[in-house]
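Hi everyone,

Forwarding the result from last night's run.
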Amino acid sequence: MLLFVIAVFSVSVLLLAPLSGNFSNTVFDKKEYEAKSHTTQNNEDKIVFIPVPNPPENKEGEIIENVVPAERQEITYSEPEPMDIVLNVLEQQEAENTQPETINLYNFPAISFDEINILAREALVNILCTAGTTSISPISASGVLIHHSGIILTNAHVGQYLLLEQDPRIAISCEIRTGSPAKSTYDAELVYLPPTWVNEHALQISELRPLGTGEHDWAILRITRRIDGGPLPTAFPFLPLEIREAAGFTEDPVLLASYPAGFIDGNTVQNNLYAASTITNIKKLYTFLDGSVDLLSLGGVIVAQGGSSGGAVMNAWNHLIGIIVTSSDAENTSERDLRAITIAHVDRSIRNQVGIGLLEFISSDINAKASDFRLNIAPGLIEQFIPFLQEV
């Protein structure tokens, strides 16, 4: 039986860097703007839907509170007790004022989380990487389509496997899976991964419990072909990005969608892995540096387990405001604190790396960017991993 180590927060040690400054009264611009529309495809998968009953309401014009410097925490992980709720299809609660009023940043009303759930799951992918080396464990993780051309956003600690896949000395093979249960569908290539992240984390490639804060922990992939040899879709379903700081406030409801796999074995991951989604509300906002909203605390939810890294965090207007990145340790998911880096943080990070923002990056010549990265940047990054791979 193939044993998988799920490439996510459940096998990480979360270190939140100490920073100075008081950001509890930062006010952000809430101007409305014209949101771009997009099309999606029908999805008949059953919904794993776990609403949070009676979440508290926000006040109009709320100041973003509790944007605090992240504290350093050294957290170790233990095996959680078995749970079978992950794959259960739950009936949705009757909607009786269970969703709070939130600040509307858009020129259209919030939509139902039933609809958002379907749209999010259409754009959700599973990333499965197998390894023919004892230095690297096979992994399963999540990602989100963010452009109609087949561009995927995930974590750097997932994207590093597609980086190493480029080197013939390293026996790694990755594929993109879709649906529920997940089925092998596409091949993909790495378009960009922050060198800043590699510089800090390459030495952890063979560790079962690597360290990470979530800072710069993002990667961009591009679907290149169908595994069965058929034609690619003319347009992929995707989720619109929200790069503004004011995309989420404390107590705002959000929908999370991912492929959690923390309580199942490798054979089930390969053959019977289901997507899951849940509603929670934002518990706290964290900053890595200067009061910007970089990290969302989402509390203890069912997707706070291995395999969910790179999963979606959606606001009530069907905009992607974050991707799941880490979780604190606890005996079960309800006692953990799931965290996600914001799309605003990804946008700031990519500006620092390449000089343009996320929206401009994915709307430009993505083939040229992938080629430039593969030829001019990837070789140097791969060499940083080599000393930590025993067989190479």
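Residues 16 and 72 are 4 Å apart (CA to CA).

Cheers,
N.
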